[in-house]
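Model the whole thing, not chain by chain.
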Amino acid sequence: MTDNIFAEDYGRLIVQGADQPGIVSRVSTVLAEHGANVVALDQTTSDPSGGQFFQRTVFHLPELSVKREALADALDQSLVDDLGLSYRLVEAKRQKRVAILVSKSDHCMLDLLWRQRRGELRMTVPMVISNHPDLGDDVRQFNIPFFHVPVEKNNKEAAEKEHLNLLKGNVDMVVLARYMQVLSGDFLGEIGVPVINIHHSFLPAFMGAGPYQRAKDRGVKLIGATAHYVTEDLDEGPIIEQDVIRVSHRESTREFQRRGADVERSVLSKAVSWHCDDRVIRDGNTTVVF
Amino acid sequence: MTDNIFAEDYGRLIVQGADQPGIVSRVSTVLAEHGANVVALDQTTSDPSGGQFFQRTVFHLPELSVKREALADALDQSLVDDLGLSYRLVEAKRQKRVAILVSKSDHCMLDLLWRQRRGELRMTVPMVISNHPDLGDDVRQFNIPFFHVPVEKNNKEAAEKEHLNLLKGNVDMVVLARYMQVLSGDFLGEIGVPVINIHHSFLPAFMGAGPYQRAKDRGVKLIGATAHYVTEDLDEGPIIEQDVIRVSHRESTREFQRRGADVERSVLSKAVSWHCDDRVIRDGNTTVVF
Amino acid sequence: MTDNIFAEDYGRLIVQGADQPGIVSRVSTVLAEHGANVVALDQTTSDPSGGQFFQRTVFHLPELSVKREALADALDQSLVDDLGLSYRLVEAKRQKRVAILVSKSDHCMLDLLWRQRRGELRMTVPMVISNHPDLGDDVRQFNIPFFHVPVEKNNKEAAEKEHLNLLKGNVDMVVLARYMQVLSGDFLGEIGVPVINIHHSFLPAFMGAGPYQRAKDRGVKLIGATAHYVTEDLDEGPIIEQDVIRVSHRESTREFQRRGADVERSVLSKAVSWHCDDRVIRDGNTTVVF
Amino acid sequence: MTDNIFAEDYGRLIVQGADQPGIVSRVSTVLAEHGANVVALDQTTSDPSGGQFFQRTVFHLPELSVKREALADALDQSLVDDLGLSYRLVEAKRQKRVAILVSKSDHCMLDLLWRQRRGELRMTVPMVISNHPDLGDDVRQFNIPFFHVPVEKNNKEAAEKEHLNLLKGNVDMVVLARYMQVLSGDFLGEIGVPVINIHHSFLPAFMGAGPYQRAKDRGVKLIGATAHYVTEDLDEGPIIEQDVIRVSHRESTREFQRRGADVERSVLSKAVSWHCDDRVIRDGNTTVVF
């Protein structure tokens, strides 16, 4: 696969809904009728009879920006009106705007900023927000604005309001890169864009606080990390990616934290990358990752 | 994905050839016109401009056996005549007939026979052939015929002839499950079905004889195994699957062999499974595995 | 490491207890004074100040069987009396006698029996016991006695008694190779030998019944298996080994079961192998695995 | 294991040589006689009869700096004179001085510098040298000197001389963090400290230039990276660490490079970390890694 697919005139069409005969054919036909050539297609169904259908199509369409509206009209009719499906139509050249929220640990944030600078992540980072001032210098070396928004026990609501002021309308996604504050349901409802979190355990094991210490106490032989969409239920949102590494009796909890940090940053970077490329589709409380 | 896709009235269509706009749409249209519903679709191209196109489609078509010929006629016209592509059309219910060739090591063969008995591999095993008599009892406990065909240095040609007599027309694939004899180009040409081999190294490292000893001497930290289609060039055929495990200074060459055997049987079983389900498409000296 | 270390005149000494300066030196001295040569030594401490000390030493001592008693007397004095440690002294040539309990799934049991036949597991298998008759033929093909002991809801106590009659005095360990019955605390107390179980999830995630279905519902991206010593608390005993494989939305719960079976048999075989070689030392509810 | 073992009064003793009965005991005795307490001990032998013996011991000895000379004298007599072994005695608090050589790719270098800053690598970095000016700013943000030493085809000897002027006496190790120049045998002889390189393939597969392209052409299903000590024979020195990741037909050579970069930085950081902690012992053209 070449890198062209992130350039001008490349589009992505995400279709999902109740499975029924003929969806793939209908999508192909609409795209072909508008002059679009399918470059890559992934499709799955949770169950051939009565399940959910998911399709991600990458296509090339000369003058996509101009023709986009006409294509959308046709999709509205063919997919939404006729088949009762939903879809998203995305121009590949339009990178998602991603805000990073962070506390004191730098590893996940730096990995995202490095990869963004290297061109590995198709996203822009309009701002980093932290409840601590510590990482300001690191962030600004990437020419990215850093905002310090303290969160204290009795000012939580005010802090969330300040976050909303900074974020709303400015970003397409929020990433919690080891941000050690719980976001309220109100905030999640208000923000209106997906929020991805990295949890430092192999969920659903060790939900909540102190997972490395609990992993040490339980004597597990693998530790891991999980990237998931944030929902009101802490650590229970749809999982995007997970990975593990092997540990042994030789390692202290501190060593678990150090080595686990490598898994955390790797897992989070993958999840963010896939989300930015519209590879992740939510299916109830699970995800399809193409 | 349910297991229905291996039942009556499910088909698989494998399409490949020079990439060009509209192939996905054309395939969808032909299938839809004949009443087939796409259940799963995988598609890729080696390069959007000037590359090779590959598509594997699983579909459901009531009375497939009856309608197969008409569908094939339409595909001949749409895909072969119009677009210059090639295709294979397979009824899922028709399991491949697989002969296993083996020498003295039982691990790869037993793993295949166990999995076949458990229903994990969609294949039948009409025979096992060995150049040694040792594994006869093990094979026959699975109610599978075992043929002992000795291969000595000066009777190689005669032995290959005997193999051909046993195999030709009776099998759709041959699996070399640690069969320690090199097959001649003549044999491969004559047999006319794919032959899969397991090599006990991570190719292209340690091609040829004694890979574990050479891995030990070189001091590698991972050892592996590779399943590939057999071509005239020993250990150089298209790779289907590879895997590795971690080793250390603590382990002797003997221990490499023991632990490597686990990788060999796992890798070979996967490769055979994928081939049986028509998931592997050859692309020159490489493979696309859907 | 050669295979000699499982032969005549090789011994294993396992030492554990409150850490304190000089243990390694003391052990070395006692062994040297009795003419034993250290072949391999693994040692760890949970915390240099106030932690637990663990050491496994493999040594060669000509006429070990004859000199064993004198060596034990010296260890009693040096390690137990003087330092308050405990130890186990094992002759490597004496293989552990292992009973396998199984229900209907054959994969874990077959893997153990096959590895034992190949000489990969240093153990003998005096019997296999099942609450179902299904696997009798498979077991007896390995020339191993198979006993069918049905367990019904209202005869559980009687069944456990029958198990005890068969097992007590005849085995050094019991392996639950997908045995789908919970053993009572009374039984565990009575049997007096270690019991190893394989649980089909990555503990502590998905304890209890139906882990694959729950993994599917939760949308995890990795599934796994855990081998642990059995205690009264179901699925909460000390973990010996765990491993995972990657899964995706494409796979059904049934497919999780199939692919998970590969992890189960691999993890259980490793745990049993390490236990047989006295590589596993219990440390409260965790294990040290050398 | 706590982090104390890198502090004042902790020492490391590395012993190697022809295996013979009683080495472990002799080492323990010498240490005990000087008041040292063994905190961790790893030991192995390539073959109990006629092989090479290796032992790494971490010990605590109050006033180590003062007592070090007396301990060394005793080791000279006990191990060198009596048993013909060689040893290294290291104070844990003395961090190794490591120079990094780099070209244009930043990923390996940044990972090392960042881990060093976090305290994960027990080393200091007195300088980074590059044959290109590009990474100067990145290096200096870590408060580390950056020297630009161009290497052109006809000034290679002069450039190596300049390198030697900068390095000799100032560093205990050199790390080639994707440094795209071959070092001459003369340079390696002159520099007199270990040099570690990261090669972007799973050695011995794809030695030399362009490994990702060759991996793509060969159609391998895993790509990897290898950290090794540099010898005169390019890519043939003793391997310290290797790892791999899974790839597929979907990925271009460019994508191999991107994803491979993650393996490169991870493998190199591990190798450097282990070397800094004296965990790596050379054994001919292989390594023992404790």
